Amino acid sequence: MRVSSQSLKRAWRTSAVFAEKLDNHLASRTQRLGQDLRKHLEDGGMAPEAASRTARSIAGLFGKLKRENDDKPEFIEQLAFVSPEERATAFGLADRALAGETIEPKAADVLLNRDSAADIAMFGRMLADNPGFNREAAAQVAHAITTHKAVAEDDYYTAVDDLKDSDEGDDAGAGFVGVQEFGSGVFYQYLCVNRDLLTENLGGNRPVRDAAIAALVEAAATVAPRGKQASFASRAYALGESSRNRLIELRQQLERAYGACADAAYEMDVVGAKGSLAGLIDFAVS
Fold first, then answer.
1. Model's pTM, two decimal places?
2. What 3-state class would DSSP assign to 203?
């Protein structure tokens, strides 16, 4: 079985762990920047048509916009990562327009190559129309895959209409019938961080870099995608003694074949009462 890296990164980036450790250093991944700008302009007294035109001129720096005759003409076609600094600059341009200034936004006026958005620095950003402001991801996250063969189970279920009269002869059954697949397993999760690139992406801000690494390690160990939580209450933490032992054995075999694979290592073994999550985070940050 597999959990995609995309869903893992989304779960981590929007988790309470990231919010606590990286407050004010997280970007927004959105299509709605232009819509927010238009509302800000209209609230400031600008006519709707002019507000839409101005908002589009700014939001368009982050990607191709919807057509002008679309129901949501200020929306960006794709989801774009917008850092806190870039958002503040975008609204600053809107305020200048409200003050009567004629603005002609250019990419270099708003977009940044380096800022304090830790999630952009870790997971990267692609702007097709302004590739000079792309960000190479400093963290690589593999898909989580079970260490063993896993079988998907079929959960046959029905949804019952509480107000249905059981005496109705034409339809006395359930309101809906369906099947939900599910499974469980011990998942192997691999990720790596280029500390130098992460530092560079953050403009040399080492405190934010260290906080980002700490958040990433803690989230990877404790946070999973939230889908179907009400149905399955899946909140498991890392266990699996046999899988752990086999992975350590494989690492030792690799080192015998290729030489030392790391300058240092840290093990957290829940079953064997060895190490801790706090110790693992300290190791990763140091």
1. 0.89
2. coil
Helix (H, G, I), strand (E, B) or coil at 212: helix
156-192 tens-digit pLDDT = 888 888 877 777 666 666 778 899 888 889 999 999 9
Q: Which residues have C-beta within 8 Å of that of residue 90, sequence separation ≥ 6?
A: 33, 37, 58, 59, 82, 110
Answer for the pair 43, 58: CB distance below 8 angstroms, yes or no: no
Going by C-alpha positions, the residue among 127, 131, 65 that lies closest to residue 54 is 65
Calculate helix-pair angle for 206-222, 5-13, nearest 10 degrees. Answer: 120
- Decide: residue 114, CB within 10 A, 0-12 exposed, 13-18 middle, 19+ buried: middle
208-259, pLDDT tens digit by residue?
Answer: 999 999 999 999 999 999 888 888 888 888 788 899 899 999 999 999 999 9
DSSP letter, residue 2: E
Q: Is 63 left (phi over 0), alpha (psi -120 to 50) or beta?
A: left
Buried b / exposed e across 116-148, counting CB within 10 Å, b at 16+?
bbbbbbbbbbebeebeebebebbbebeebebee
Q: Which residues contact 278 (CB under 8 A, 6 or more apart)?
A: none
Coil, strand, or helix at residue 83?
A: coil
Return the SS3 of 187: strand
Residue 164, Cβ neighbours under 10 Å: how many?
13
Structural contact between residues 57 and 65, judged by C-beta atoms closer than 8 angstroms: no
